[in-house]
Amino acid sequence: MLRLAFVGLCCLGSVMTTEAFAQAKKGDRDYAVVDLKNVDEDFYYQGEYYGAIGADCNWCGAATIGLQVVARGDGHFFASLYQGGLPGNGWDLSAREELDGTRDGDVLTLTGKDLTLKVYENGPVEVLDTKGHLLGQLTKYHRSSVTLGATPPPGATVIFNGSSVDQLTGGQITPGGLLKEGTEFKKTYRSYRLHVEFRLPYMPYATGQARSNSGLYLQSRYEVQVLDSFGLEGVENECGGLYKQKRPRINMCFPPLSWQTYDIGFVAPKFDQDGKKIKDAYITVLLNGVPVHQDYAITAKTGGGKQEGPELYPIKLQDHRNPVRYRNIWIVDLSDQPDPQYCYPCRSLLCDK
């Protein structure tokens, strides 16, 4: 479901727009960068790595491992190590191992229970055992979703393509043609298929809900979280989660300053003539092309969402004071169609096969 591409030493600097944005001062948890021209040295050690180590490794029992490295500011890092590969690309879903480390010059050293990892700028990563023996190397990769840049299908309504905010209330476009957080759709929808692309700012000093926070509020009631949760466990209030209600099946959040995708199928709840709910809303969510919720019944409104009821309210892109950016937003209205289902064989969020 994902594209896996090697990242060389020079290619990262050319993948983003020329928009430059920074809030607060370096070291402040509100410090945010939205352009690669403004990142610190730590940024180039952060990311995803993949490769094989010795078959006789007592720690893994398998030859392939994945690594996610997360910058925490001023040369401090933590990382998650996965058996079998990266989340969505080979990880066997066993417990991930957490490592901590610091950067000294051009080498980041991460220490785990049985392994030491030497990370160099943009890779490679040397994997060493407790005696310092080299077990193998990992290569840095940049993954992209198979739905990135998805073309609106026939009958879709384009909400935002970089040229107009006519379909939005309070929409603002950056000089680079991106949509700022803090807007909502003008039209309301009961059931639909939704495609949204988003980019998280780089906020190395922030943690938890302060780290690149926004959200998709469906019907202004149900929040699908947008947050920099790269390398974390993936819980109810992290990226891919239905806020404080249901954690994603797998944490598919990519590193900040990567373009990411949500593809969502939403079916509205049903109410009787007296306004009593007789059927829950249900939802299917693909984060970066991988199903993280499938036909899940949403039992109640989430977080600060509006109370449930038969009234329709707009889809909102939450403003949580962090410069999250959006692009390529479109929607297919399915309000008059039978309740849709996710179809895995045809790899389409909603189809009739």
TrEMBL record:
Residues 156-331 form the 3-keto-alpha-glucoside-1,2-lyase/3-keto-2-hydroxy-glucal hydratase domain. InterPro entries: AL/BT2_dom. It comes from the Bacteria. GO terms for molecular function: hydrolase activity. It holds the Pfam family 3keto-disac_hyd. This is 3-keto-alpha-glucoside-1,2-lyase/3-keto-2-hydroxy-glucal hydratase domain-containing protein. It comes from Gimesia panareensis.
